[in-house]
Design a protein that fits this description.
Layout: H1 5-17, H2 31-38, H3 49-63, H4 77-92, H5 117-124, E1 131-142, E2 145-156, H6 160-181, E3 186-189, E4 210-213, H7 235-242, E5 247-248, H8 249-253, E6 259-261
Parallel strand pairs: 1-3
Antiparallel strand pairs: 1-2, 3-4, 4-6, 5-6
Helix pairs in contact: 1-3, 3-4, 6-7
Bound molecules: zinc ion.
Zinc ion binds at residues 205, 210, 212, 259.
Length: 264
């Protein structure tokens, strides 16, 4: 990890803000910056400059109410994201709404099983089995060929009624125009018997109990800073799924925001 001028500027800004006197905020590491950093009591003195600087970014984020994880002086994804949030906060005075504390609804009215092969097989049957046709409450478009309209799909018989109820609620709440604008009709698939990417376990799509939406704007490895489904206008969408006990990997694990599944 090499600290850029932008990092150093923010460090100097925060050193000044918290009374450590780094002098000018020019993004250049001089004696004033180094001395100011030495004064921060929470940072072990035997760490090298870079590690101290990163630890101070983590401390500054924490002091501003932004979760940067453990203050260890190492740059990981959480520190990276927290840094960007702090940068925006310093520049605009606002915390981006993507950094909301999302607390998924935790109910399970349909008694969905845990995501574990034995429980899934006993509840849903073997992978690829017990599939029924679901008439969709509103037309979907194939995400990989948007001219293709989909009026019905195959899913596991156990999720059929729940899926129908959720999508009916989505239609009632958003209406078809808003559904199209938010791309809640861009369907990326349900039943697909396959192993998880890079793994040996079955994907939950193998049982026909997972749905993908708008994969182009909610890529597998994207977190809430990039995924469009992490925005507040999608809160209700997720709540409607969660009220039926479905789990969003985006909302619970902050990746694969396209994906929703009927497991706990
Ligand atoms: Zn998926």
């Amino acid at each position: 990890m090499k600290l850029s001028k932008e990092h150093i500027k923010l460090i100097q800004n925060q050193l000044n803000k918290f009374g450590y006197n780094a002098s000018s905020e020019d993004g250049i590491v001089g004696n004033n910056t180094k001395t100011a950093l030495e004064k921060v009591a929470e940072i072990p003195s035997d760490w090298n400059f870079t590690r101290k600087a990163i630890a101070f970014i983590q401390i500054a984020c924490t002091n501003n109410g932004i979760d940067a994880g453990t203050i260890d002086g190492y740059w990981g994804p959480q520190t990276d994201y927290a840094f960007n949030v702090l940068l925006e906060f310093v520049e605009t005075g606002l915390l981006p709404n993507a950094w909301r504390d999302i607390i998924p609804l935790n109910v399970n009215p349909n008694n969905w099983p845990l995501q574990e092969e034995t429980s899934m097989n006993s509840f849903y049957g073997e992978v690829g089995k017990n599939q029924v046709r679901l008439q969709l409450p509103y037309p979907h478009r194939l995400s990989w060929d948007k001219r293709k309209i989909v009026n019905s799909i195959f899913c596991n018989e156990k999720v059929h009624d729940s899926l129908h109820k959720i999508l009916t609620n989505v239609l009632n709440y958003y209406g078809i125009d808003e559904i199209r604008r938010l791309r809640l009709d861009l369907w990326g698939g349900c039943l697909n018997v396959r192993k998880m990417r890079g793994g040996t376990k079955w994907s939950t799509h193998s049982w026909g109990i997972a749905m993908d939406y708008d994969p182009d704007n909610n890529r597998l490895k994207w977190g809430r800073d990039q995924a469009s489904f992490a925005k507040p206008e999608y809160d209700k969408w997720w709540e409607l799924w969660e009220a039926e006990g479905w789990t969003s990997l985006g909302r619970s694990k902050n990746y694969d925001w396209m994906h929703i599944q009927a497991t706990k």
